Amino acid sequence: MSASLSLPKPDRTLETYATRGAQRSWPGPAAPIGSRIAYAAAHVVCDPLADVDPTTRTAIDWDATLAYRRHLWSYGLAVAEAMDTAQRGMGLDWAASQELIRRSLEEAKAARGVIACGAGTDHLAPADGVTLEDVERAYEDQCAFVERYGGRVILMASRALARAARAPDDYLRVYGSILRQVRQPVILHWLGDMFDPQLAGYWGSPDTGAAMELCLDIIHAYRTKIDGIKISLLDAEKEIAMRRRLPAGVRMYTGDDFNYDRLILGDEHGTSHALLGIFDAIAPAASAALQALDTGDTAAFRAILAPTIPLSRHIFQAPTYSYKTGIVFLAYLNGHQPHFRMVGGKESARSVLHLAELYRLADAAGLLIDAELAAERMRRVLLVAGVGGS
């Protein structure tokens, strides 16, 4: 059943748009997905009724936040917890991240869901006085916390290390120190500066080629301590080049929210697994595509993901770090949370025109599950912005 509403256009006029909703069912897998490992970096749901300053204090709706992780597991996806999609370091501090990690690990055990958790240095403010020893201790503290509760570590990029490092050897020192201590293999995390400007020049060089060489040196030196690496550079060719140089047994996890379809499908030289923020938003379609891949149906894999690519590129358009707004907005449209409010007040990080186009693209991808619900919730957001009211 369709539902009509008025959506704004760039020329400030309104168009009547008929929401189609899901044009197919999106069943979860009957058996675990086997062709690829696919992590969805999960968002958090804030508590809009907490009497706190939302720009300085974190208040989380734990019931809705954990329910969303169960939603992701129901589609056969793994959860990447306390990552940048959860607004880590951009509204979610380490104290709240600890509670999120602890609760999610407990939930994963109950649901038999696969999970890995971000460990970084975000409780250490990047400043001129920060030393490499400070960075190492910060990493040690966070990795120890994740492992204390039985979690697998995703070793997040460090703003403090980017600030403190004076040469590529400083990265070798810090990562070597941490990797020698972890109990089980970790996933490294290379987050480009389009996602976080404070990570510019990571791995000791502003030149991506030189940075990749240093990162590969670390991976080869500590291959038994590394499950894989997620790179989020939004450059498919660089990911493919690095993927072909990884040692045997070390996986590439694509973090490319622009080109994930062809990177996951791969080529004759190899494939990428996934650790993606967009999989939070498109979980039903991502699961269906991977289920098709499990059966060898690459045509269906491509057909399912093709309409999600324009949606993802829109959500992750510059400034890329504001993509979380679109992720949460789509969860709101689909009834996974009763409000469109975010930690840090980030619901205001995208324009009304951006949200209207997101609505159209999500509908085109069949990812507005209930047309009437989505249309009504879109109307509410537009009314707050003065669109459609009298």
Query: So what's the oligomer here?
Result: single chain
Number of strands: 10
Q: Look at the helices and sheets and give the structural class.
A: alpha/beta
**Broad CATH class:** Alpha Beta
Based on the coordinates given, report the CATH architecture: Alpha-Beta Barrel
Describe this structure in words.
The chain has 390 residues and is α/β, with parallel strands linked by helices. It has one domain (28-348): Alpha-Beta Barrel (TIM Barrel). It has helices at 62-74, 94-111, 132-148, 159-164, 168-179, 208-221, 236-243, 260-265, 278-281, 283-294, 298-305, 308-315, 323-333, 352-364, 371-384, and strands spanning 3-8, 14-19, 38-41, 78-81, 115-119, 153-155, 186-191, 226-232, 251-254, 273-276. It has an 8-stranded parallel beta barrel, surrounded by 4 helices. The protein is globular, with a radius of gyration of 21 Å. The model has no long low-confidence stretch (mean pLDDT 96).
Question: How is this structure best summarized?
Answer:
This protein has 390 residues and is an alpha/beta fold. It contains 15 helices and ten strands. The mean pLDDT is 96.
Could you outline the blueprint of secondary structure elements for this entry?
Layout: E1 3-8, E2 14-19, E3 38-41, H1 62-74, E4 78-81, H2 94-111, E5 115-119, H3 132-148, E6 153-155, H4 159-164, H5 168-179, E7 186-191, H6 208-221, E8 226-232, H7 236-243, E9 251-254, H8 260-265, E10 273-276, H9 278-281, H10 283-294, H11 298-305, H12 308-315, H13 323-333, H14 352-364, H15 371-384
Parallel strand pairs: 3-4, 3-10, 4-5, 5-6, 6-7, 7-8, 8-9, 9-10
Antiparallel strand pairs: 1-2
